[in-house]
Amino acid sequence: MQNIIFFGDSLTAGYQLPGSAAFPSLIQQRINTLSLPYKTFNYGVSGETSAGGRQRISSVLARQPVDVFVLALGANDGLRGIPPRNTMQNLQFILDEVSRSYPQARRVLAGLEFPFDLGPLGGHHLGAYATEFKALFRTLAERNQLAFVPFLLQGVLGHRNLNLPDGVHPNAQGQKILAENVWEVLEGVVT
């Protein structure tokens, strides 16, 4: 049996949903159906920034061997306007720690886009931030030769019927789409 670690924030944790509705659990169901020798671990922490993940990574890596590591952090950095270079440095640190601890681990990165429609705000600096934020994930994926999920929230962001009333966190139906988005890339890593 090999271990898949999902390391992220509330999107991974399945904020306000039962654990079985979070996308890592849905991916475990898919894995079980396909009789693949993997066990998923959901290390999503609501409110986590990339800096928080950087502080937490060593304790997570010490808990069990890592065969596949799925990194899905950064949404809270974007919401807080943290400079993309800081987010990139923190995510690179996390990826490096995984490689140092488990050199054979296959790594997957989930990309994000700035979660707001910036048009009505009229600030060109916000548009520049959104562009830079989105680009940091692809840059990291290419630099580290990672399997890459271009946009974790593809098909969910901005769809009221797929999100909780806060309009930010996916509901159970939205989590199913996140699972599909991740599985589209993860399937090639685990089969």
Automatic annotation (TrEMBL):
It comes from the Bacteria. InterPro entries: Ester_Hydrolysis_Enzymes (IPR051532), Lipase_GDSL_AS (IPR008265), SGNH_hydro (IPR013830). Residues 6-177 form the SGNH hydrolase-type esterase domain. It holds the Pfam family Lipase_GDSL_2. CDD domains: Lysophospholipase_L1_like. This is Arylesterase. The lineage of its organism: Bacteria, Pseudomonadati, Bacteroidota, Cytophagia, Cytophagales. PANTHER family: SGNH HYDROLASE-TYPE ESTERASE DOMAIN-CONTAINING PROTEIN (PTHR30383:SF5), THIOESTERASE 1/PROTEASE 1/LYSOPHOSPHOLIPASE L1 (PTHR30383).
